[in-house]
């Protein structure tokens, strides 16, 4: 009855090869230098898995499947081409919602037509016990992923306020709902349609309830968590469908998403448990923000000053942040770096793990502008170098340089590791105004230091002006 047992050896081998390709894809994606190769491995693995599945299963209508793949492929291609880098987190959330929905739909199909999915017991009358548990788990995790991702998308896309929505007694409601889902999956062997519907509906509700109390600041962590859930939903459905490739892929996505969420939580000094429990402890994540406020003296510089100071330097370390992404300053920045190098200045880029609004945000943009990978350094590899650096050029970054993370216990970013730009001989700080604050909504002491010169203006325009001054 189980198709897996009957599958010829070459099918298992093909699925194994696709699994290995997925692992190589993850490995490739761990560094910008190898990410293109990683993507290719992933595409090849998926092609092998899909073709193997298609040729080894009875397919009711191949043309319909091919048409569906073509339509989905075109939509995905056009969306990916058009999407702005800064909108990537919500696109990822939207994609996860589709994975969750697919798991729910597959479970519904398998429940309604168990024969077609080979999940009937030997009597041929009832669904296999074990398949029901897998189905129940798959549909529950899929539904949570779907509704959670829809809320994450709406919050990130600005259709819904980013502020946490705290329902009174939410922890009790959430725990009660989760417990009810677990009990229902446990008694799903009774196999009544009402039970199935109840699992689906409660899971949609809990996905919604878990995500609404999470503030905008934690949303990227949530997106990565939902990515992990979508993987587990796919793995559970892989068990229902006896599809090895789906189990392997689901488990890889599930575990890598969980690891990424954990890394992001650590880099932002958030508690992993509090994020997945949904706004636990009422931490608003600071994104609601306070205003930057007190009047303190600060120095303003011009593009010419910046060009002069950097031209005299032995080493310049560029610290990009969210503002660089918003103004798309990366190409101008690379040009500036090229000019400096031509003058014999050593140029390095320092990347904070949560600079920008998603993991790897800065790396992707710098790679797009063809900044050489060997000039790009992670926080732990470059932080000690600021004290031997003549100019730290902070462009559109703020929170990731804020010393309050080390000194002010009341700060929302307290405990987050920061790039120690203040240790450089001179700090050039590019932002649009003194009033604008970073993501965490807090003032930054670096603006007011004796060795800081504020370069106020749009990041791209400012760098273009600096480039012009250098060229003279
Ligand atoms: P940030 O603290 O949000 O600061 C952005 C800075 O860019 C601000 O000072 C802003 O000041 C400036 N800016 C905005 N638009 C600009 C423009 N067009 N030209 C010039 N400057 C511009 O950015 P960050 O230092 O990159 O820190 C990232 C923050 O996001 C952290 O708090 C992190 O925890 C959070 N976060 C990151 C992730 C992730 O995965 N990367 C996920 C979730 C949350 P003005 O308005 O004055 O211009």
TrEMBL record:
The chain crosses the membrane at residues 6-29, 41-59, 65-84, 91-112, 132-152, 172-190, 196-214, 245-265. The transhydrogenation between NADH and NADP is coupled to respiration and ATP hydrolysis and functions as a proton pump across the membrane. Keywords: Cell inner membrane, Cell membrane, Membrane, NAD, NADP, Translocase, Transmembrane, Transmembrane helix. Complex of an alpha and a beta chain; in Rhodospirillum, the alpha chain seems to be made of two subunits. It holds the Pfam family PNTB. This is NAD(P) transhydrogenase subunit beta. It comes from Sphingomonas montanisoli. Residues 12-468 form the NADP transhydrogenase beta-like domain. Belongs to the PNT beta subunit family. GO terms for molecular function: NADP binding; proton-translocating NAD(P)+ transhydrogenase activity. One of its GO terms (cellular component) is plasma membrane. InterPro entries: DHS-like_NAD/FAD-binding_dom, NADH_DH_b, PNTB-like. The keyword Transit peptide does not apply. Its main location: membrane. It is found in: Cell inner membrane. It is a multi-pass membrane protein. Its EC number is 7.1.1.1. It catalyses: NAD(+) + NADPH + H(+)(in) = NADH + NADP(+) + H(+)(out). The lineage of its organism: Bacteria, Pseudomonadati, Pseudomonadota, Alphaproteobacteria, Sphingomonadales.
């Amino acid at each position: 009855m189980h198709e897996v047992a009957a599958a010829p050896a070459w099918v298992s081998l093909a699925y194994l090869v696709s699994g290995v390709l997925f692992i190589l894809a993850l490995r490739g994606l761990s560094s910008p230098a190898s990410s293109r190769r990683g993507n290719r491995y992933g595409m090849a693995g998926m092609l092998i898995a899909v073709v193997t599945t298609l040729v080894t299963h009875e397919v009711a209508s191949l043309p319909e499947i091919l048409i569906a793949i073509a339509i989905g492929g075109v939509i995905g291609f056009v969306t990916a081409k058009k999407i702005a880098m800064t909108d990537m987190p919500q696109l990822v959330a939207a994609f996860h919602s589709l994975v969750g929905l697919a798991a729910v739909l597959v479970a519904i199909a398998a429940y309604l037509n168990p024969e077609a999915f080979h999940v009937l017991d030997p009597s041929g009358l009832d669904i296999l016990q074990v398949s029901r548990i897998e189905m129940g788990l798959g549909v529950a995790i899929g539904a949570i992923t779907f509704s959670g991702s829809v809320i994450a998308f709406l919050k990130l896309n600005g259709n819904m306020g980013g502020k946490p929505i705290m329902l009174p007694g939410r922890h009790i409601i959430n725990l009660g709902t989760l417990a009810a889902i677990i009990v229902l999956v446990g008694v799903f062997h009774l196999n009544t349609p009402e039970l199935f519907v109840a699992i689906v509906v409660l899971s949609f509700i809990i996905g919604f309830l878990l995500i609404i109390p999470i503030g905008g600041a934690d949303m990227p962590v949530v997106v990565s968590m939902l990515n992990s859930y979508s993987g587990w939903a796919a793995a559970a459905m892989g068990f229902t469908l006896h599809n090895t490739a789906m189990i392997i892929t689901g488990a890889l996505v599930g575990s890598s998403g969980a690891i990424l969420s954990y890394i992001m939580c650590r880099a932002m000094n958030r508690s992993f448990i509090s994020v997945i429990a949904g706004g636990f402890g009422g931490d608003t994540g600071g994104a609601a923000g306070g205003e930057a406020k007190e009047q303190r003296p600060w120095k303003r510089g011009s593009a010419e000053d910046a060009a002069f100071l950097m031209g005299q330097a032995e080493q310049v370390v560029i610290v990009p942040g969210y503002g660089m992404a918003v103004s798309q300053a990366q190409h101008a920045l690379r040009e500036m770096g090229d000019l400096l190098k031509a003058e014999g200045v050593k140029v390095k880029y320092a990347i904070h793990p949560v600079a920008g609004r998603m993991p790897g945000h800065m790396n992707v943009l710098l790679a797009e502008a063809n900044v050489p990978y060997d000039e790009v350094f992670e926080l732990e590899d470059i932080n000690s170098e600021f004290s031997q650096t003549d100019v730290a050029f902070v462009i559109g970054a703020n929170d990731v340089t804020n010393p309050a993370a080390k000194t002010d216990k009341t700060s929302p970013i307290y405990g987050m590791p920061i790039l120690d730009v203040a240790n450089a001989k001179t700090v050039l700080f590019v932002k649009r105004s003194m009033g604008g604050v970073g993501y965490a909504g807090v003032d930054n002491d670096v603006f007011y230091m004796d060795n800081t010169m504020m370069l106020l203006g749009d990041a791209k325009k400012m760098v273009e002006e600096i480039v012009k001054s250098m060229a003279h």
